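Protein modeling request. Please complete all fields; requests missing the sequence field cannot be processed.
Requester role: graduate student
Desired output: 3D structure, token encoding
Chains: 1
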Amino acid sequence: MPLKVGDKAPDFEALDTDLKPVRLSEVLARGRYVVLLFFPGAFTSVCTKELCTFRDNMAKLAKANAEVIAISVDSPFSLKEFKEKNRLHFTLVSDFNRQVIALYDVVLPKLLHFPLYYLAKRAVYIIAPDGTIKYVWYSDNPLDEPPYDEVINTVNKLAAQ
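Delivered output (161 residues):
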């Protein structure tokens, strides 16, 4: 069952692009909101546009005391190249074992009607420092992009409270 606003965000630990473990609870312990992005695959057109749009809005997110973590099932090595090529200045995490996408129930079993190994659905969660989910958006269609302005405005409103 998909997670919803008010649920406790499942904690996870996964490797970043430098092969260092990232644990959600440790990031939240810094007292910042986390904008948790799930995306199907590095180097694809829609995913590149999505992550670059968040990159271009990092100043607004940082002003709202928010940190971005983006997750896909790509290897840490692919994600590192993707991060460098697109000058992404936020954390990318590899869920190569597909445990995190299962925890968050964002498993995409097909990509545009092609049965593949499981990918991540495109999804956005805003998680408060106490671990409570404050915002959820996801799509079963990997071509859909998240409502960027809505995500940024939500983070700003939460930070102002």
